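Data card: per-record layout.
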Amino acid sequence: MNRWLLPEDIADVLPAQARKVETLRRAILDLYQSYGYELVAPPILEFLDSLLTGTGSDLNLQTFKLVDQLSGRTLGLRADITPQVARIDAHLLNRAGVTRLCYAGSVAQALTPVGGSSREQLQLGAEIYGCANGEADFEAITLLLKTLDLAGLKKVYLDLSHAGILTGILEGQQLDKESIETLYGLLQSKDRPRLKHWATCLPAKVAEALLALTELNGPCAEVMANAKKVLPKHAAVDQALADLERVVSAASKSLSGVELSIDLADLRGYQYHSGVMFAAYVDGLPQPIARGGRYDQVGKAFGRSRPATGFSLDLLTLAGLSPLNSRKLAVLAPWIDDAGLNQVIADLRNRGEVVIQVLPGEVLEAAEYECDRELVKQGNSWELKKK
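The structure for this 387-residue chain is written out next.
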């Protein structure tokens, strides 16, 4: 076996792309800081029971597991940073008011995500803790759209859903974990024939409501009107529809360049989320570029109930789609022992310029840089000239 081969769906990030990723990371984290978000950096390894607290079985299947030689306990290599940030808010910061946190770090997944091409991601996200109001959901959506705009992705399709609708429909039904997983899969795929057959064990009104979810997708006004007609009257369902109406109203007034829609069967992460959910799509990518929503129950699982909402995305995917030019302009300089030249180079670098001194016999190969100027000696001084 060639020793330089990597595991399946694991890849190196080469210079030009790495520069683009890092430039975006810095700009996006600066954007989050301008909104008052504080940066945290959780460890890549944790005890498995802590890492999976408050999450669904999907995350368990995606988590690499190993034994800690010091404690003998099972460790997990994180597949998602969000639960770690919830733990930090609940137990380390332990604040009573609203807390805004952001992060950027590597995650690894045991299986390649559906529609994805890599098992390693650079996950970037922002979370708001301590606010149960719809304003927090809207801030998270606004920040996500600004993130995509900063990366040069101007046309965004935002799909909304709500975990409370399924909660209301299924109230009183004693379904085990396996049955919930099956239902979740059928709703995601909108497989009406199999869903109809599966739901024969449920009361007729519940089965009808589940089937209705598979058709409640499309333009917001149309879906909301139909949902009010066909979904059962239930406090959780009514509250969910009211939450969605508020988000749609706020987004319609304040956000431009985004196409809004609703898909009430898009319940990915249903076991994890508890309220408004959203997925952002862009041209050129079949799966969502980012997902987010409310997850009030995760903090409770850590022993401290805290309202929470936020989003995350893969920065590597975002950089790959971004039309922004990642090449940086640079200055060429000769490699000679000249005090005047060394001073000019130092001054340029202090001003943020990239100066590449060409080694004797070197043929410069740097896809990351575009050398558009060079230092040329004119008399007794070194001058910057265009190439």
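Known properties of this structure: The chain has three domains: 1-154+283-326, 156-282, 328-386. The first strand starts at residue 38 and ends at 39.

See the next section for split statistics.
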